[in-house]
Amino acid sequence: MLSYTGVKLIELNDNEAKVSIKLKRRTKNHLNSMYFGALAVGADVAGGIHAFYYAEKMNKKISFAFKGMNAQFLKRAETDCVFVSNDGKKVEDAVLLSIKTQERVNETTKVVAYNLANEVVAEFEMIISIKCI
Questions:
Q1: How far apart are CA 18 and CA 36, in angstroms?
Q2: How far is CA 43 from the centre of its chain?
Q3: 94: pLDDT strictly greater than 90
Q4: Would you say residue 133 has pLDDT above 90?
């Protein structure tokens, strides 16, 4: 799905993850807005990439999955979209806790999707589940 939608990493640092998906034939629905599934792919990547970022930074291997998702679609996504998560610190803390306890840790990350006019089109709560192995 990542390849099919053409999701692109724009920025990744300790706090922020930013990815984009272009509105094109593969990501567009019959209303000429972005498919629910394409929006979910953007939220998936922006909400989960920090787990791998911190695992690599700490030289640890992780078992990672999404445990849940809540989405609010506020406006039709009729342009390319940028997905932003500013919860890197929360994910880092979850990785550190998993290292310390050797248990699976769940954390909720927020992802906001913006259109090219910088309007919020969707908000996601992604529940990530991390275990350092």
A1: 19
A2: 4
A3: yes
A4: no
Cβ–Cβ < 8 Å for 23, 39: no
DSSP 57-114: HTT--EEEEEEEEEEEE-S---S-EEEEE--HHHHHHHHHHHHHH-S-EEEEEEEEEE
CATH of domain 2-132: 3.10.129.10
Cα–Cα distance for residue pair 55/109, rounded to 1 Å:
17
Predicted confidence band at 80 (pLDDT cuts at 50, 70, 90)? Answer: very high
C-alpha neighbours within 13 Å on the C-beta side of residue 6: 11
d(CA 18, CA 86): 9
Over the stretch 2-24, which tens digit does the pLDDT of each residue have? Answer: 899 999 999 999 999 999 999 99
What does the domain layout of the chain look like in residue ranges?
2-132
